[in-house]
Design brief:
Layout lengths: L15 E5 L2 E4 L4 E4 L2 H4 L8 H13 L10 H14 L5 E5 L2 H16 L3 E5 L19 E4 L4 H5 L6 E6 L14 H13 L3 E5 L23 E4 L10 E5 L1 H9 L12 H16 L2 H22 L4 E7 L2 E6 L5 H10 L2 E2 L1 E3 L2 E4 L7 H17 L3
Bound molecules: pyridoxal-5'-phosphate.
């Protein structure tokens, strides 16, 4: 069927009409509970009233900026992010998408170190294009096998500018968290070789994993932090925040980089308000409590269906349930959608990254539905 769109990904036939917090309403009047937060963006829920008010106020003032003026929203947002990260006297730049921010962080790392390549863990997704793209043509990328200590010893650090650390890969392998020992060993080698550490927080940031940033679950002091997605709660704004060292190296040898929507006031105002709402609603802390509740429920489901569920993985509100090989996770994902639950699915795994505002009652509904499906099918 032709909907005038390039068929670059698949979607259902349903049209989304309205969204409110964790609920979505389609054109047929059917409701869904969103366990994907869009594409893992809406950490404070869809159409948050306080955020809408801020957007309404800001669009009356200024949406787009240009390069002739300073921008107080971008400056305030940079200070706020530095405070959450623990940087002093660093700096930020704001772009539109995660891919843009990842690529700019790599450009900065390459420029400062004079080295051309970057390291990522093989289950990480960094960007849709450019230096972070997963593609055979990308000769900037050195992939290190997930949790493989031997692989670290074999890395040739000769030309490596940075390690982009994603502490919860949600896409490539459906929610996996690297071991602390593996990350420490890799970071030690990076530091010995003057390789910069970039915390890639496009998905793991903004409270998703029960801390402001996923790297805060590890003993990591990054040189740069990249965010996107939930920074604007679905509005396209992303960031690169650098520490004082990177800033001073950049100042010694600066380059010009300008995009039309760089540091635009609307995106920055939205991000400031999103952070404000996360803070005042204590949603980062709630992600831990609700995530524990959710994990517990999934573990109980596993105990009830030991032949069908192989593994539960969870940190904060990033969770996955991996079925045994004869349970078709993609089919279960489709059935859940028909029953009013939006979840991620790939092969035999389901993924859940709901808004941090998700209620225990929503989780109970999902678990009951899953329990019913597993009891009815795959006997
Ligand atoms: C970890 C991670 N980094 C970067 C990106 C790219 O972000 P965007 O799609 O906003 O360009 C994504 C997108 O899914 C992601 O999951």
């Amino acid at each position: 069927m032709n909907y005038e769109l390039l068929p670059l990904y698949n979607s259902s036939e349903k049209i989304l009409k309205k969204s409110n917090d964790c609920q979505l309403l389609d054109a047929d009047g059917k409701t869904y509970i969103d366990f994907e937060s869009g594409v893992w963006c809406c950490n404070i829920g869809h159409n948050n009233k306080q955020l809408l008010k801020r957007i309404n106020n800001q669009i009356k003032l200024s949406i787009h900026h240009g390069y002739h003026f300073r921008n107080e929203f971008a400056e305030a947002l940079s200070l706020k992010l530095q405070q959450l990260i623990g940087f002093e006297n660093g700096a930020s730049v704001f772009l539109s998408s995660g891919s843009e921010a990842v690529n700019l962080s790599i450009t900065i790392a390459k420029h400062i170190t004079g080295k051309k390549k970057i390291i990522k863990i093989d289950n990480s997704y960094l960007s849709a294009y450019g230096y972070g793209q997963i593609s055979d043509d990308n000769d900037s990328l050195v992939n290190v096998k997930y949790n493989d200590l031997d692989a670290i010893r074999k890395i040739d650090f000769n030309n490596i500018s940075a390690f982009l650390i994603e502490t919860g890969g949600a896409s490539v392998e459906m929610v996996k968290f690297p071991d602390k020992e593996f990350i420490s060993a890799l970071i030690e080698r990076c530091r010995e070789n003057n390789c910069l550490l970039i915390a890639e927080e496009v998905t793991t940031g903004m409270g998703r994993m029960g801390k402001w940033f996923g790297y805060q679950h590890y003993n990591i002091t990054p040189d740069m932090v990249v965010t996107g997605k939930a920074l604007g709660n679905g509005y396209p704004v992303s960031s690169v925040t650098v520490n004082a060292f990177v800033l001073s190296e950049f100042q010694k040898n600066p380059f010009r980089y300008a995009q039309s929507h760089q540091n635009d006031p609307l995106g920055c105002a939205i991000a400031l308000e999103t952070i404000n709402i996360l803070e005042s609603g204590q949603l980062v802390e709630k992600a831990t409590a609700t995530g524990d509740y959710f994990r517990n429920k999934l573990e109980k489901l596993k105990a009830r269906h030991p032949q069908k569920i192989k593994d539960i993985r969870a940190r904060g509100l990033m969770l996955a349930i991996e079925f045994t090989s004869f349970v078709n996770g993609e089919q279960i994902g489709k059935q859940l959608f028909e029953n009013g639950f939006v979840v991620g699915s790939k092969l035999n795994t389901l993924r859940f990254l709901p808004p941090l505002t998700i209620k225990n009652s929503h989780i109970n509904s999902l678990i009951n539905q899953l329990n019913k499906m597993l009891a009815d099918k795959y006997q």
